[in-house]
Amino acid sequence: MESPRYDFIESLHPKFIEQLHAFFSHEKRYFFKQLEDWVFVKKATNFAEFTNISKKNREILAQNFFLPSLSLVSQVNSGKDQTVKFLLRTQSGHTIEAVLIDDGLANKGYILCLSSQKGCSLACRFCATGTMGMLGNLSSGEIVSQYLMLAALSNRPIKRIVFMGMGEPFLNRKNVFLALDILCGKDQSFRGFGISSRRIAISTSGILRGIEELAGHSLNIRLSLSLHSAIDESRAELMPDLKNISLLQIAKAMQYYSRQKNQAVFVEYIMLKDLNDSDAHLKALIEFLKPLFVKVNFIAYNKVQGKPYKPSSQQRIAFFIEQLQAQGIVATQRYKKGDDIGAACGQLVSKKIVTVSP
After folding, report:
1. What angle in degrees, to the nearest 10, is found between the helix axes of 208-215 and 173-184?
2. Terminal CA-CA length for the chain
3. 279 in any annotated domain
């Protein structure tokens, strides 16, 4: 029976470093710093690139580890903006999607929208990913590999990272928080990629335990909440798997996060015609938000095949923004990018299972 191979990115983390040491017990500390340098500084995606490592040691690495833990299946470029969507295959043969979004700063950089799960267990009515069901959590190495691979494929630097792709990040907390350690650097003894935590945001549909744990995390990761209605019954209709989490509980968790981190929570609100854009919804939204430290992004619903929903009119979205601003609430509209290639908010889906070669 063939011996298992290990995820090399994970193996660089202090939690797993012993499995790397087991193969190179004869090497000095500097050797392991060289390995870190190839991944975290030079962003190498192939052991053959490790040119200051002996051929024998490169062979040991290739025989016992894999780098990266994902492989590229395809990429699609938007015809209307600079968005690029990538279909990536996991070691198990499932496929996920990740997206590079133009940051809007004169072609200076990208925002990376990455996935945390293979599919999603939360079947939100308006979301394509929820139609997949839950196919499994991504490992920390698979989460980080999205950054490593797309940084290598992009002709522009990745300026920000948002956990807004496939899956609910806080239902995969263990691997997501480990991935954050690797992306940002855990402490002085582990460099990681050295990305500023303030350039990373995690979006949740309202998983209370995750919000609380993020509030207590040493890194200042930004929190984004997918709200979509400030009326419990309406929110339960749109997001049925979250019906047991009340808006009062969510508000308390948001307040706790803001106190701990001294920063605003970003609130995402998808505008759905005749479903969450009435005057009653607006009144409830203002009442919900006023006591909170928030910044609100309104998003016109992005059409998903097979879903009956329609986006609210631009006039209605503008009216919501105007009314919130009149109450002193920071509110803006997030404009569509990549919707022509199924890469916009709520459109990511992949049902295809790619066969892995033996």
Report:
1. 30
2. 13
3. yes
Q: Which residues contact 252 (CB under 8 A, 6 or more apart)?
A: none
Q: Do 82 and 200 fall within a single domain?
A: yes
pLDDT (tens digit, 9 = 90+) per residue, 318-347? 999 999 999 999 999 988 787 787 766 776
Write phi, then psi, for 304 (nearest 5 degrees): -125, 130
- CA–CA dist 331, 327 (Å, integer): 10
Residues 6+ apart with CB under 8 A from 127: 120, 304, 346
CATH of the domain at 321: 3.20.20.70
Cα 1 to Cα 289: distance, rounded to the nearest angstrom:
58
Q: How confident is the model at residue 355 (pLDDT cuts 50, 70, 90)?
A: very low
Secondary structure of 225-268 in the HEC alphabet? EECCCCCHHHHHHHCHHHCCCCHHHHHHHHHHHHHHHCCCEEEE
Count of structural domains, the chain: 2
User: CB–CB of 16/34 below 8 Å?
Assistant: no
CB-based contact 331:325 (threshold 8 Å)? yes
Q: Is 135 within the bounds of a domain? A: yes
Q: Does residue 136 sit within a domain? A: yes
CA distance 125 to 234: 12
197 plus 82 within the same structural domain: yes
For residue 10, the enclosing domain spans 6-66
Give the active site residues.
97, 345
**pLDDT digits over 110-149, tens only?**
999 999 999 888 888 888 777 777 889 999 999 999 999 9
Task: Please state the pTM of the whole predicted model.
Answer: 0.92
